[in-house]
Amino acid sequence: MSSYVFMKLLETRAGRYDLGMSLLSLGRISGIYRAVAARVPEGANVIEVGCGTGGVTGRLLARGCTVTGVDRSASMLKVAERKLSSAIEADQLRLRVLDLIQLDREFADASFDCVVCCLVLSELTRAERRYVLDEFCRLVRPGGLVVLADEVAPRSRARRLRYRLTRTPMAALTYALTQTTTSHTGDLSQALAERDLEQIEHEAAQGDSFQIASGRKSACHLQPQA
């Protein structure tokens, strides 16, 4: 998945993003989108953070979910709007241009059944990741689900070395073209566990360099009356 550092370049050409991602992933990105959406319960009220052109969004809608899609790129959302116009007309989908740091000002606590975030955390600094992960836990209702998918460093030493050798020149080229890049996120399941989420599940893909993880927020328990 190291070729996904080129996402930053593709994001400057929103109309070509879907085709570019398909080519970079050798057609595997569609399967990842499906696997992410499959973790979300049918009919859930979902906020998808960094929804981009709607790759995961369309599959959530197919599961009967009501989706609020947010992304900081207006051009990416324009593509999603064209692709998913029928869901917008049916009030099943709302799209908003929104930076991640605005989440705490725009949405109340426990507003959603599920938070979904795919291929976004790797674009953030460590401090930003901590903030948005805390926000995800705030946004999801008790008993709700947080679903993450992103690039991670392989666990085995040999795969980790191969990953770095492959990724470093790609990252350098992407930075030269866009002055931005991405970095692996660390273990997503561990990040969820550190926030006291429960029933954590994860799966690896692409030689352990990509991970899909989900965790459930603890349900509220009524305290006995004194």
Report on this structure.
The protein has 226 residues and is of the alpha/beta class. The chain has one domain (2-216): Rossmann fold, CATH 3.40.50. It contains ten helices and seven strands. A hairpin with a 4-residue loop joins strand 6 and strand 7 (210-216). Helix 3 packs across helix 4.
Write a short abstract of this structure.
Helices cover 41% and strands 22% of the residues. It has 226 residues and is of the alpha/beta class.
Classification by helices and strands: alpha/beta
**What is the average per-residue confidence, as pLDDT, rounded to a whole number?**
81
Biggest beta sheet attributes:
7 strands, mixed
Quick one: how many beta strands? Answer: 7
Q: Unreliable segments (pLDDT under 50, ≥5 consecutive)? A: 1-6, 168-181, 221-226
Q: Quick one: CATH class? A: Alpha Beta
Order of helices and strands: HHHEHEHHEHEHEHHEE
Overall 3D shape: globular
Helix fraction bin: 40-55%
Strand order within the widest sheet?
3-2-1-4-5-7-6
Going by CATH, the homologous superfamily would be Vaccinia Virus protein VP39
The number of distinct structural domains comes to 1
Question: Which percent range describes the beta-strand content?
Answer: 15-25%
Return Rg in Å. 17 Å
Notable characteristics:
Rossmann fold, 226 residues, alpha/beta, 10 helices, disordered C terminus, 41% helix, seven-stranded mixed sheet, 22% strand
SSE map:
Blueprint: H1 7-10, H2 17-24, H3 29-38, E1 45-49, H4 55-62, E2 66-71, H5 74-83, H6 85-89, E3 93-97, H7 103-106, E4 112-118, H8 126-139, E5 140-151, H9 157-178, H10 188-194, E6 198-205, E7 210-216
Parallel strand pairs: 1-2, 1-4, 2-3, 4-5
Antiparallel strand pairs: 5-7, 6-7
Helix pairs in contact: 3-4
